[in-house]
Amino acid sequence: MGKPQKSRPEKEKSSGKKQQMSQAELTPLFFKRKPDRSVSKMAPAHGGIEEEPDTVREPSDQESDSEEAPDIPTYLANLPSKADIKEMLQEVTATLKEEILDIKRDMISLSTRADDIEANQSKLTANQKAIYTHIQQQDRLILELQRQTEDQENRSRRNNIRVRGIPETVQNEEIHAVLLQIFNSILKKEPDSEIKIERAHRVQKPKAAPLNAPRDILCCLHNFALKEQILLKARDISNLTYEDNTIKLFQDISKTTLTKRKLLKPLTDTLRDNNIPYRWGYPFSLTATKDGNQAIIRTPMDTTNFIKKLHLDEMELPGWLPDQGNTLNLSFELQGEWSQATPRRTPHTPRTPRNRTRQSQNQ
């Protein structure tokens, strides 16, 4: 016997129930159930109290939710179409193209500005070298002008003799007679022998001189040769006096020359200790000779060569040699030539697969 066949209404009922069940099973795939906010995710506040389990929903409630939820055709109808996706891609592509174009413009602007900066840097370096060369020339000219000015001042004093030690009791009108007496005694002539003195007067006392020391007397002789003769013979007299006062005679030189000689005093003391003859020259110079080798100092830069030629030990000359720590290092030997690091190239649009396809088609 065959199975009993169901009637048509029963078949429709069973198929409707199957459809409802399939919709109920597919609904969780499209809609995620939101967690119940009433239930706290935190641990219970009081220890020992357990969280109550979720209530089990009855099948009638699930069936009501499945009936309210939209069915599969509605979901499929709400999905974006191919035209929608294409439109979205076109909008994104257009936006990216605009942004890329803006970036390219900025890169071109920066590249142009970098080229301008490099060109200006090259000009500045060339100008700096020219200015540095010009400054060196100006320094040499200024130094030479200072030497010439110093020489002119010393030549204007070449007939002067500075007499030190004459007491202040000698009045101004008596200075001429006292000088004649001292000079004639040096020259071993009669005290009243005539020596032509153009002028004679007292000068300001040096700052380092003792308070009770008399002021120096500066006199100008008419004859330069006679002045040199007096100074030369005065060196041979060990004790030159006037009324029990020690008298000293000096060559009248400019303040600049006197300062330079004081700065070179450690060097002249060394020359004297080694029995090396030396002499001062005009314009300012110091000349010494040892074993037929002649060395001359005119500027501080000549000091090292001077010491080497005379085989002397290295010595410190404060104030004479330039301080290396305070000297500006303007040499360009350590500074390389300005050169462009990398060659510039014009930015271009990157070749996309679509552009390559078009180019191959055109070919």
UniProtKB/TrEMBL annotation:
Residues 61-70 have a biased composition (Acidic residues). Residues 345-357 have a biased composition (Basic residues). InterPro entries: Transposase_22. Gene3D superfamilies: L1 transposable element, RRM domain. Residues 1-77, 337-363 are annotated as: Disordered. Transmembrane segments: none annotated. It comes from the Eukaryota. Belongs to the transposase 22 family. This is L1 transposable element RRM domain-containing protein. It comes from Xenopus tropicalis (Western clawed frog).
